[in-house]
Design brief:
The complex is a heterodimer of chains A (299) and B (405). Chain A has 299 residues and is mainly alpha-helical. Chain A has helices spanning 5-14, 87-97, 103-128, 139-156, 158-172, 183-207, 213-231, 235-251, 255-267, 285-298, and strands spanning 20-22, 27-29, 51-57, 60-66, 79-82. Helix content of chain A is 56%, strand content 8%. Chain B contains 14 helices and ten strands. Chain B is elongated and about 135 Å long. Classes of the chains: A mainly alpha (299), B alpha/beta (405).
Amino acid sequence: MQNNDDIVWSIINKSFCSFKVNTKTQKFCRHEYNLTGLCGRYSCPLANSQYATIREEKGIIYLYMRTAERTAFPNKSWEKVKLSRNFEKALQQINENLLYWPNYLKQKCKQRMLKITQYLIRMRKLTLRRQKKLVPLQRKIERRENRREEKALIAARIDTAIEKQLVERLKKGVYGDIYNFPQVAFTKALASEEVQEESDDEREEEYNEGGREEEEEMEEETRAALEDATEYVEAESDDEDMESDEEHEFTDEGPEESEVEDIEDMARPSTSKGKKSKVSVEYELEEALPEKTKVKNRV
Amino acid sequence: MASALARPLITVYSEKNEKTGTSVHLPVVFKAPIRPDVVSFVHHQMSKNRRQPYAVNKDAGHQTSAESWGTGRAVARIPRVRGGGTHRSGQGAFGNMCRGGRMFAPTKTWRRWHRRINVNQRRFALVSSIAASGVPALVMSKGHMVHDIPELPLVVSDKVQSFNKTKQAVIFLRRIKAWTDVQKVYRSRRLRAGKGKMRNRRRVQRRGPLIIYGEDQGLKLAFRNIPGVDVCSVKKLSLLKLAPGGHVGRFIIWTESAFRALDAIYGTWSSPSSEKKDYNLPTPKMTNTDLSRLLKAEEIRKVLRTPNKRPVRAVRKLNPLRNVRAMLKLNPYAAVLKRKAILTIQKKHLDKQEFLAKKTGVPLQKTKQQVRYEQLIQKRKEAIQKSKAAKPKTAKKAKKAPAAK
């Protein structure tokens, strides 16, 4: 209708249009007011100053119209008419609003309105059923997080933590007497514990005499109680062995090494520990000997 | 219907997007022919004018005293470096295929970098692009977000020219709804693809609105820091700003004084330009460009002859001697002759058979057709006799009358 339509179309078609999307078989138009979605001479909203579309906002269908007089005022160019929810009435509304308009626009408007009503119906039906929400995963982030998980796993050092926990529990006496430890190793462990206690006690006495005494006492008592709890079976026999072992241990071994050795020994439960005092039990002297030799070398 | 060259009134908007009372007649520049081909060509040429020469060192590849070893040495004949004692000795030199040789056709600084364009062509392109900036469809198709501005072409009061703070400029753009275009520029900021990145052309962004002023009272300072926004004086319009990329339809915001000055600068068709010597706007080839409307117009339809809806197509010639219908078309009596011929043949055949039958004494077994034929002939004879009997008198009378005379 307007002077410029043909010029505009020749420019848009042949050179550049920012709304045009080209595929191998078809040209699409991304303009929001386009009636068909395709790029063509009579469906281009830019190349036709007299134009009409149907658009839907929040479930309500509107008819938009534009005439040649209003194209110069982009603000006010589109006239919006709300269409009835009744399909037949809406068709009639289209007919009366687009009376004397070109048939092509009328037809396409009606078709578009039909499509829109159909998909709105479908949307309403879908919301009644289960809603699946699609959440897009971002590959980069997923990969990064997985790798970090692995690293965290390694950093946590779970096996060592478990080990510690088990040893603690053993000390506490949670397991009772289920485990058989080699006599020598066990006594050493005990001795090392005692050594630790003594050294700790000495240190504490040096530091504080006033306030912490009670605590110290508590600690000593608890420790004694614990030791008593663990050792009540072996206490009779161990006195003899402890004296002999103590001499060695003061000079040579550190508590750490003995603990490690204890753990190693505990891993292989060999001789029974319980029956030492009265019954003669086989000592695995071969195990003990290498320890002593080791000790000597370290000196 | 308003003529194509009618000049509507454009209202001037205040810097707060209210209509001031003033309105300006649309300058005739906006009615100039829009020629994207001219604009593209001129833009192409113009953009070459800002180039800096580049070339390879003129000695590159030739700073050796290499000589070909000639034939007979079981090596290729390319010049080779003289001497000995290094890797380089004996290696090929000089050729574009050699390592360390000069390139093919070394680039020279005296390449023709700049292009001259005819003044009239330059002005034509400029005028075309101004005209295109007044068509909302073209501005939108270029990608500018102008769906909320009050009018196109957009003319704003001269107060804008005295802005000196960017804040004022931003508020102004927001008020007249040109800010969405600037936002688009922000969103389009990205790194260039390719080696331009390391050649000081790292970042790329879209172009935003262009502000054309009559007099700069600080406007340049206010708008220069807003990304995408360009500023230009009416007196010094440049095609590179009006049609960036060689495509028409940039979004332009005019100040009132700039808009009013256009008529004087470019002239109207009735009066030439007062600022440019001897210049008038280009005349369009078609005053009314609405082709579809023209073809439906009564004035034109009346003069045309009636359309030929049924074109006669060439028909293949059929030989009448071979094709019966073609013969009949030409000579309808041929049907009679042919029929007669067929019948005589049949009769003769029948007669012969009867004769033979008589001779041999064998009674003839006649086919159905032959039987019917005989019957037919009998009937005809009877019919003829009847009709003769019915009209004897008239025939005799007719004979008698001429006899009497």
